[in-house]
Specification:
This protein has 15 helices and 13 strands. By secondary structure, the chain is of the alpha/beta class. The two termini are 13 Å apart.
Amino acid sequence: MYIKEVASSLYPWDLADEGVETCVDNVVEHSLVNSVYLVGIMHKEKRPLTSLFYTHNPKRKFYLPEDSRIYYRMDEANFANTPLKPMYSDRDFLKGTDWLDQLTEYGRKKNLKTGAEISHTFFDCEVAKKEFPDVLQKNIHGGIIERHFCCNNDHVKEYMKAIFYDTVKNHDVDFVQTCMMLFAIGEPVKAPWFMENDPENKVGALLGVLKGGCFCSHCREKAIGMGYDWDRIVSDLKGLEQLVYATAYHNLDSVMDNHVLMGSDLLETGLLLEYPSLYQFLEFRMKSIAVLFKEIQVSIKSANPKADFRYNNYLRYPELAGLDFASVKDYLDSVRDSDYTEQLGAPDKFKRKRNTILKIRRGIGYDKDLIAAFAPRPNATPELIRESIKVLSTLGVDGLSLGHYDGATFELLDAVKTGMREAGLEIRK
């Protein structure tokens, strides 16, 4: 089977600590990588994520990034229509260097595909809370939802479009990828303490959106403009939220209704039939994300018609965040799926990976590229990496993606090359 791409992400601190040439040469040599991309805007998160210490960084044992800094140059003029402005690193070993240009220049020398990723969050959340609280999503009671920016806020939308536009306009990239957080999905609702909890309870996952967002004034304005009775939707969902979280609110009048609901085998269909406002809320968010993706794509193509817009899916149920792949397929060029069950020992024997890949394929069709990720991290094994690649070879994917180099061991990176050979995968020239 032929694939087009084997991709590897690289972080700016990787490049600074190990050297651009070393990082790129390592992934090319050990894993047959033909596509490298910089995580150019990174959320606040310990690196490496799934192990205590780095496996091959010569300068530090771990790293704590700043929140949502941009690690390459931006043209401030592109941000004239929004009060949100690019924020750059204050760390001495990172600031003042365009790490995207550093990576792409060497990548081109190696005849590699190049890209940039805009990660989960694209603006410092603490700064936003203090200076621009209006841009953050609001829960059903009006409280701020951390790290989630409302895509129905015009200032947020303009900032996002400017980042994508500038990235492809002023840098030599073939694609711009993002795993930006969409609408907050809350937490799955569990069964009462005296009942056995089913982790596969999809009704519980659906009900979690009641603790998600967004219920801000911008969403209200956009929803009414689309013809929704927003005030009725919010009123109905507040009543359902009080029932679902009756115990937490010490709402004894609804406790029995809560226990019966969560102890039943009600399907999501039954819940949506009973609460049409819940369906309308989900539909409105789906339409909002489709509008956002369309506008981002227009912005990207206006800057560089050849640059691909790629979404990096990280959610088990992206539809609960407003992402329906069938609704956005015309606005995406490719999709990467971030299933990393290898690092957990693949206890489900890659069932989730298969299901997610097929769900995305069903949505985007057969002509859009689907890139499947796997985790060459210390909790995985060479056998698991090879088995994962073998499974992916049966699912019609168009490429593979390492997640991520900074925590990988060379033994696991070598397993990529071996796994591709055993699975009969060959990169199309």
